[in-house]
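Input structure tokens:
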């Protein structure tokens, strides 16, 4: 029939290995801008190897290729793709499985970043991003400027401006103003904006 494929071509010169990683590891992968601007000797890399059942005693280094920008809704993991030149003397066919080893020892020295929901971030008249921080002694809010990183699904990295344990507003942030009173939402409630809530916001 018209437009029906009659055959497919497979390039066996290089292999693509895909697997899923949690968000704390996805943050350690270099962004596209970092890969383009970093010199080869200074490029941010991760030590990743693959081995195959046909030759379990041998391992092959992998090169990072790309990562999904949205998490899987069921597993909350991100699919990453690494490339591998076809190993000589080893039979590896498309569709076969590989065992992947990742060295995460270097992550301890990397910058700590935080993930917050996208709807928790607002902007002022100068388009400077901020989040609303809760003063828990007065139960009011004030705007805290933050530095944004990459977007990961429905979340965004906060590179600076927040400290561990800081309570921020995650529902109704668009309706807030400086020193506005807020209330804590019950644990059974979901942190979603309420259409009729224009004076106070949930935290």
């Amino acid at each position: 029939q018209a437009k029906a494929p009659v055959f497919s071509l497979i390039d066996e010169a290089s292999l693509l290995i895909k697997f899923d990683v949690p968000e704390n590891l996805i943050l350690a992968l270099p962004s596209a801008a970092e890969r383009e601007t970093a010199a080869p000797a200074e490029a941010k890399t991760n030590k990743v190897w693959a081995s195959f059942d046909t030759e379990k005693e041998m391992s092959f280094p992998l090169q990072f290729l790309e990562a999904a920008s949205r998490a899987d809704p069921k597993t909350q993991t991100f699919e990453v793709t690494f490339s591998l030149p076809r190993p000589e003397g080893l039979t590896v066919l498309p569709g076969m499985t590989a065992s992947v080893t990742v060295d995460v020892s270097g992550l301890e020295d990397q910058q700590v970043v935080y993930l917050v929901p996208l709807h928790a971030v607002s902007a002022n008249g100068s388009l400077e991003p901020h989040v609303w921080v809760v003063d828990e002694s007065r139960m009011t809010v004030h705007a805290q400027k933050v530095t944004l990183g990459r977007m990961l699904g429905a979340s965004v990295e906060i590179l600076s401006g927040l400290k561990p344990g800081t309570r921020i507003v995650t529902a109704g942030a668009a309706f807030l103003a400086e020193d506005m009173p807020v209330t804590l939402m019950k644990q059974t409630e979901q942190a979603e904006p309420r259409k009729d809530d224009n004076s106070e916001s949930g935290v």
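Helices lie at 23-26, 32-37. The CA atoms of residues 187 and 203 lie 11 Å apart.
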